[in-house]
Amino acid sequence: MRKPFLQAVAERVLLGDGAMGTQLQQAGLEPGAPGEVWNVEEPARVMAIQRRYADAGSDLLLTNTFGGNRSRLALHGQEARAYEFNLAAARLAREVMGDDRYVLGDIGPFGGFIEPLGDAERDEVVQWFDEQVRAFVEGGVDAFIIETMTALEEVECAIEAIRRHSSLPIVASMAFDKTQQGTYRTMMGVSPAQAAARMVELGADIVGCNCGTGLDIHDYAHIVAEMSAAVNRPVMAQPNAGKPELTDEGIVYHETPAMMATGVAALVAAGARIVGGCCGTTPEHIRLFRAELDKLRG
Ligand SMILES: [Zn+2]
Predict the structure, then answer these.
(1) Model's pTM, two decimal places?
(2) Pairing of strands 170-174, 177-178
(3) Which pLDDT tens digit goes with each residue over 105-135?
(4) pLDDT above 80 (res 298)
(5) 31, 112, 125, 231: which could form a disulfide with 196 (CB 3.0–4.6 Å)?
(6) Distance in Å, CA 150 to ligand 1 centroid
(7) β-pairing, 235-238 with 245-247?
């Protein structure tokens, strides 16, 4: 039986999973189609991907719900099924991980901007996340992860929704890009230190970075170090496998498992307590990450 999630993170570096979206497309999901539908329509295919991550050594899985909020699903006419997709996702991930390993309910961006920058009302954004959170609670997740965020206001909406229904741990992660000056900022101009400090203030138990543009795994080590210096909380890093490139064979990510594995020790040295992979990473990336983490433990 597993320990409470935060206790496990305090005791050792946990290994996350790798990409879901790119894996779903390899399994036949049409580019642009909502992968959350498969939690109900093609559960065996979702679980097959998650099993490969579990077999590669992941200590935790994210639910297949990155675009599972009503706003994103509405782009495909699937918004009425949001709760159903999120609940199914939590149950599938639990079935794969059993009682010994962790399931994190995944909340991604709603895909727009909150007033006054955009036309989404704050209350409605909280409601979209609230629906996911209720499904995750019913589905028995161990913790929540808010990821790929660029605006702190949106992180705030997600944390507010979570805390209405649960006191389970929250991981809050933003997507940083590298500026021409060599610093790191989200698309909305937030630095790693600002992000970490504010997300902790808002109630995040773990802060992190994922899915940056133009970053390699060594850039993530810098971001982790900045976040670690800013807050007294565990830090998560989910680097993507480099920049996606459109080729004749579809979208290709260039950072191989072996290339990325060389950066794992630096992430841990910088303070990362959870290491996983974002877009373009595969079960093979995760398998090599596992080997690196095991080496570090000696
Ligand atoms: Zn990503």
Answers:
(1) 0.97
(2) unpaired
(3) 999 999 999 999 999 999 999 999 999 999 9
(4) no
(5) 231
(6) 13
(7) unpaired
Above 90 in pLDDT, residue 99? Answer: yes
Number of compact structural domains in the chain: 1
Residue 202 has pLDDT above 90, yes or no: yes
Give the model's pLDDT for residue 214: 84
For residue range 47-69, list pLDDT tens digits in order: 999 999 999 999 999 999 999 99
pLDDT of residue 243: 87
Give the domain CATH number at 284.
3.20.20.330
Residue 161 Cα to ligand 1 middle (Å): 23
Residue type, 2: R
CA of 78 to the centre of ligand 1 (A): 22
Does the structure show a pLDDT above 90 at 213? no
What spacing in Å lies between the alpha carbon of 20 and ligand 1's midpoint?
9
How far apart are the CA of 298 and the centre of ligand 1, in A? 30
Separation of alpha carbons 226 and 235, rounded Å:
10
238 C-alpha vs ligand 1 centroid, how far in Å? 8
| 79 close to 119: Cβ distance less than 8 angstroms | no
Distance between Cα 240 and ligand 1 center (Å): 6
User: What is the β-pairing status of strands 245-247 and 250-252?
Assistant: antiparallel
DSSP string, 238-260: E--SS--EEETTEEE----HHHH
CB 230 within 8 A of CB 198: no
Q: What is the span of the domain harbouring residue 201?
A: 5-297
């509405």: which residue's tokens? 74
Interval between CA 1 and ligand 1 midpoint (Å): 30
